[in-house]
Amino acid sequence: MAGAGISTPSGIPDFRSPGSGLYSNLEQYDIPYPEAIFELGYFFVNPKPFFTLAKELYPGNYRPNSAHYFLRLLHDKGLLLRPYTQNIDGLERVAGIPPDRLVEAHGTFATATCTVCQRNFPGEDFRGDVMGDRIPRCPVCTGVVKPDIVFFGEQLPQRFLLHLTDFPMADLLFVIGTSLEVEPFASLAGAVRSSVPRVLINRELVGPFAWQQRHNDVAQLGDVVGGVEKLVELLGWKKEMQTLIQKEKEKVGRGSDPQLPPQPLRSLCWS
Ligand code: OAD
Ligand code: ZN
Predict the structure, then answer these.
(1) Which positions are annotated as binding NAD(+) (predicted)?
(2) CATH at residue 215
(3) What is the distance in A from the centroid of ligand 2 to the CA of 88?
């Protein structure tokens, strides 16, 4: 289970960290209260703030870090049943985890839907609009097209239901970089069998790690990158991890993904 904390080392602010989190840096969005940016009612009145955020998070602006590549390594080794992420930055995909192995519980910019006729489009079709600060419109009915990001009160994607079979099957659960404050995602932490070790890698204790610990819970507190790298070292996978990251960097260098900017990452300026 992953959250915004796995992407802060890539330069994307999380939501709730005091000071640096998105919810405490909303001046530029001109919205009445933080959650308005993900509320349908507000979106229909004023979609601009959401598209300002969309412009920043649209696939191509950021690169994965060790936390994403750790998931990729687990996947390559056939050890990863399925990553459940709350993140909408798409960095699990960029790290090479196939979309059909992933659950992007809060949606994705990879696809978009017309809010009027409900037609579905590839997110790429609207890149020009989003980057040019234009509200994307449906080519068929001219309704506003909304990227398939889950807003508050909206249903989670169908794939989220995979948790019903995945979680009882898991024999280890990683919880990385999330405050576990948003339901129904947060409750998944309680859906693994009680004999299953749960490993939290996060700055602070969250959710059941703070208030309903199990005897076999483990917490590695601190930075996610440091935590993941420590674990990779203990597993004896350091070399493999370095090779993987190097290989992925070279791919970008060879220009296999022309939308990606050159390293280093540009950083966000939220306020
Ligand atoms: P939060 O911002 O609520 O929590 C991020 C967690 O990661 C916090 O516990 C941070 O302390 C921790 N963290 C951040 N950077 C870290 C780092 N470098 N190392 C270690 N820990 C770090 O983000 P989420 O839990 O993902 O909804 O938030 C859940 C949902 O709330 C989001 O998906 C979003 C928002 O409303 C939508 O986008 C629809
Ligand atoms: Zn339409």
Answers:
(1) 4-8, 14-16, 86-89, 178-179, 202-204
(2) 3.40.50.1220
(3) 23
- Residue 10, in any domain of the structure: yes
pTM of the model: 0.91
Residue 50 lies in a domain: yes
B/e letters for 38-72, b = 16+ CB within 10 Å, e = fewer, are bbeebbeeebebbbbbbebbbbbbbbbbbbbbbbb
Q: Concatenate the DSSP letters of all residues of 143-170 into one string.
A: PBEEEEEPPBTSPPPGGGGGHHHHHHH-
Q: Is residue 142 part of a domain?
A: no
Please tell me whether the peptide bond between 264 and the residue prior to it is cis, using omega within 30 degrees of 0.
yes
Task: Give the SS3 label for residue 8.
Answer: helix
Domain count, the chain: 1
Cα-to-centroid distance, 86 and ligand 1 (Å): 9
Which residues form the domain of 34? Answer: 4-106+150-243
